[in-house]
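hi! just following up on the protien thing from before. the input was this:
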Amino acid sequence: MAQTRSGSNLIWNILSYAVLILLAVLSIGPLLWMLLTSFKVEDDIVTRTMVYFPTRFTLENYIKLWNQSGYPVLVINSLVTTTLTVAICLFTGTIASYAFSRFNFPGRTPLMLGYLVVRMFPAVLMIIPLFIVMRNLGLFDTSLGLAVAYTSFLLPLFVWMLKGFFDAAPTELESAARIDGSTRIGAMFRIVIPIARNGLVATCVFVAIAAWNEYLFALMLTSSTGSRTWPVGLQLMVGEFQLPWGMLAAGGIISIIPVIVLFALVQRVMVAGITAGAVKG
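and the predicted 3d structure came back as:
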């Protein structure tokens, strides 16, 4: 019986590792192929036979992308829009999350459910109302207007995630700070937010990545290079009679560098925030 159970566990372990390896290949494979393509010459990309590795490594695609397409401006626009989006969500969402976590007020549950309903509807349904609002407010084709549009569907995610971290913060410490003379806002900034800082960082990272990669709103709410973001810029490189695979691959590699750097800087804090509250000692 023991040998049978041991053999069964071995088979399951082998199958588990096989599935994990397959998932890793499916995840890393396209990125690796895009990286190799960005270093290929045109003859290695457009060919009858598959060329897996560049016959001649070149930086021509990166040089052309950087000098001829205005891509640096698009990346800077994305950085500005993402920063504004995170700042708006951080300011408004932190206060809202704290209120939902600590107060019982009329309409609290319907309002929280309303946040979920906003996330349930497809983003495309919000395009026309947002377009009209942005045009009337003079925010159309601006980074601030695009950040406000992103906030409309990212703020509910921010509030729901951060509320869970605030719920895990003990209220006793906050009550002790109130007894010592601290105000409610002071206790929030001195006690609750430092305790939930890992969760706050993790939530901000999720919002930043979503804003950085967003395409639909950026396409419909911008019309000039002054506020257009990198996903739209890459799409506009595709012409009717040309498809610059090398430049597109180079643009994709450049666009994921900020995300990799961000993960490298906050990896430990983010993991700690995601797993916070999973195990209680």
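The CA atoms of residues 74 and 225 lie 7 Å apart.
Confidence is low (pLDDT under 50) at residues 277-281.
cheers
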